[in-house]
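Aggregate trends can hide what the representation actually does to any particular protein. The sequence in question and its structure tokens are set out directly beneath this paragraph.
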Amino acid sequence: MKNGSFLTLGIESSCDETAIAVVADGRRILSNVISSQIDIHTAYGGVVPEIASRNHLQNINLVLDQALGEAGVRLEDIDLIGVTKGPGLIGCVVIGVACAKALSFARGIPLVGVNHMHGHVSANYLQYPDLEPPFLALIVSGGHTNIVEVKAYGQCEVLGATRDDAAGEAFDKVARVIGLGYPGGPKIDRAARRGDPDAIHFKRVLLEPGSYDFSFSGLKTQVLNRVNQARMQGKDLPVEDIAASFQQAVLDVIVEKVMAAVKERGEDRVVIAGGVAANSGLRDQLSRACEGAGVRLYLPDPVLCTDNGAMIASAAYYQYQTQGPDDLTLDARADLPL
């Protein structure tokens, strides 16, 4: 506690960002430090779990010191520690959980393990102080593409989920196929702005009527076949047109399903969350759809869409209010369900 504010330290290490933040009263960011490993993993074309884990181990104490320093607080001022307990790369999640448990034990600070997906949703609370549940959320990232109804803080009903490749995973795989490299999401987004989204028709896979689930593996295969066909015929590969056409096919499916859920559930507020929520095409297309339907759309800043400690701190704060702390038996879980 400092100056009457309840301070939460949030620790995030589920993939390749070592991120720690200090958040006051679940809503106000005092610091949000992110140490990215993108440059390291680019050489391998994707995240190498063991390398990511080792870098978390090397960086986490440095990031902790920087987060506390930028917030102008000491560990003695911290009232709660929140940490991602899953889902994620297990070796990476373990580093964050071990750090949080050590700090909790050494300083006697309450500890809360947070679902990474709840953290992504909570990024919107940091951006929009007036936002409270219930609302509809689109969580779209490298490992997840979910439409959920957020009934209360930390309480979600999953309406739809990916059956194979998540949207972010499909972006990464297609980026590699067309030679853009890693990280695929931002590079596809940039290339798509220079391409023609109508240049190539890729089939939109909507699955059975009424389903809010997603399937992007077939779309990925369509792109691969198109690339192989061009190469066999000795033609130049229209990278920007492929990127734009592929991205448009993904976005059409996502937006159509979100708006169907809005109508069926009678929702008037939608939030987006997760790394792919930073995609400029998705933000523009969903904004237009929501405006046309009279629905308010909440768009967190791109830095809050990617993995960060502030979103974990916010989620931990509200979880602590309703469920209390976890004990030191808290453990990491790679496949933690939403």
Q: What stands out?
A: Strands lie at 7-12, 17-24, 28-36, 80-86, 111-115, 135-140, 145-152, 155-160, 269-273, 296-298. The chain has eleven helices and ten strands. The longest helix spans residues 239-265. Residues 82 and 112 are 5 Å apart (CA to CA).
